[in-house]
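Record TIGR03619 family F420-dependent LLM class oxidoreductase, 292 aa.
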Amino acid sequence: MKYTLSVAMGPIDQLIGLAKTAEEVGFDAIALPDSLFFMEKAASDYPYTPDGSRMWNAETPWVDPLIAAGAMGAVTSTLRFYTNVLKLGSRNPLLLARQVGSVANLTGNRFGLGVGIGWAPEEFEWCGAPYKRRGARVDEMIEVIRAVLAGGMVEHHGEFFDFDRLQMSPAPSAPVPFYVGGHTEVALKRAARIGDGWTSAMMTGAQLAETIGRIKELLAENGRADVPFEYQSVCIDKFGVDGHRELADAGVTDNIVVPWVFEGLGFDAPLDKKQDCLKRYADTYIHSGWQE
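=>
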């Protein structure tokens, strides 16, 4: 099982230091969150908390995840980065393909695109994208982005996007993996049909085990049972070496963690305190040999 550091909702001036330390102590990747803006009044409840409330406010710091990946990639050499997850629905696929290809090239293919639809109508409408039929539109966006990133001349004539032959160079020298987020049956089917992996929001170990089992069924139905597939988890109730062993046994391949939260520190804790947490966490889990 791999270990990924989540840097959500922390001060953005800490990102470079955290990336350097995460690589030094043995983390595999950094998961980068996405939030476009904080709307004072939300038309929909946030889908990943019991009461629908948002876990952040208007002052919570965010940075564009693609820009963050480029900045952190410049000061590391082995650490990978992926969005967790980028909200596709409010964006344009050609502009996004240009950005993703740039980050993949600048980081030496150390970037993966975690994708979701987006939950807030405001993020669609205020960015000029339709909220209706968003799922079908995102499916077509993924098709467009993948085709462009593959290199060479590409044209596309679909229901939502239409363009003649074009090329973006240089194309990444290796395919950019796509990790599909979401807990609904529709999202799981999308992951099994077109994804290189699935990524969770906050779930219990039991929920993760059940969901991973369902995805494996769907992969088999799509003739993809033997295709390499990542299961990235944010688990809220499996701690300690025994808990991590349970996650691995359930099929989790990538454990997304926030070590300073586990030690009772806040998201805005000082950088040196977070770096100390990373070192202790790596000693306890990454270098403890429990997976041998």
